[in-house]
Amino acid sequence: MDLIGTILWPLKWVVELLLVAFHWLFSSLGMGYNDGLTWVLSIVGLVLVVRAALIPIFVRQIKSQRKMLEVAPQLKKIQDKYKGKKDQFSREAMSRETMAMYKKTGTNPLSSCLPLLLQMPIFFALFSVLNDAQRSTRGVGPLNQSLAESFGNATLFGNAPLHDTFASQWSLWTAGDPFNGTVMIIAATMVVLMTASQFITQLQIVSKNMSPETKASPMFKQQRIMLYLLPLVFAFSGVAFPLGVMFYWLTSNFWTMIQQFLVIRNMPTPGSEAAKAREERLARKGKLIATDGDIIVVEEPAKPVQRQQPVGKARAKKQNGPKK
């Protein structure tokens, strides 16, 4: 076993345990043991458990990003102090002052990458498990030979194997050989959904959750590039992945999109449009606390009262009826 295999072994064991556990659950509820839908729902359950387990790390990432925003002015002062100085002494002094500032404020610029770094080995482990299972190869743990063959032969809609890819069917089609149109339709639909969900997630960040200072910095230009680049990555790479892996990726994308929406709504970046919208919502509900401890309440403008039209005597008598 190589180094990567050794590192992924415990993760693959856990992935197999969750996958097999969900397959047992759905099979016990009456779903087909060898049905593709049973295995797809097992993959979805696996994603939900993994992403839920990463929520504390994600919250820590958000808090770290807030701290980085708070220390940004101090960091800029250090950079301005050594601006234009390229000698070794100045670079070492700048590095020492920067690290001292990070230590004093308890910030870490690498913490924002932690959730992504933790998810990548899990994704590789899942891809390895699914790739082996789709070839009917048993796993390293609970995914035995029988379950691996069940997964490897599982199909959606009766003729779309979970181990198949859009690229393989495209090659058959262009060569004039018999191809599986159902696989191509499912895969194409999932690529569109994956691309759209990734674009919406990035758009939420760029349009609502950036402060004016960030939008004026070079970082904003990078975010704008990522807004269009990442969906293209999903579009081009998705066609080469098996349907089983694509279901994992799509579910993870939807989780990220919903999670990002909730974070922007409830924990927006200070000074951003989302933060202003949140303050307005809290103020209308009387829950916005000022820095001096006072509660800020924004009164809703009174609705204009509809002016009652004057009624003539003859019409008034007709409405009130004849006097008794």
Descriptive overview:
This protein is an all-alpha fold and 324 residues long. The protein has 2 domains: 156 residues, no CATH class; 107 residues, no CATH class. It contains 13 helices and 4 strands. A two-stranded antiparallel sheet has the order 1-2. Strands 3-4 form a two-stranded antiparallel sheet. The longest helix has 28 residues. The radius of gyration is 29 Å and the shape is elongated. The mean pLDDT is 79.
Topology, pairings included?
Layout: H1 3-28, H2 36-53, H3 55-81, H4 88-105, H5 114-134, H6 145-152, E1 155-156, E2 160-161, H7 166-174, H8 181-208, H9 212-215, H10 218-238, H11 243-266, H12 273-284, E3 288-289, E4 295-296, H13 313-320
Antiparallel strand pairs: 1-2, 3-4
Characterize this entry briefly.
The chain has 324 residues and is an all-alpha fold. It contains 13 helices and 4 strands.
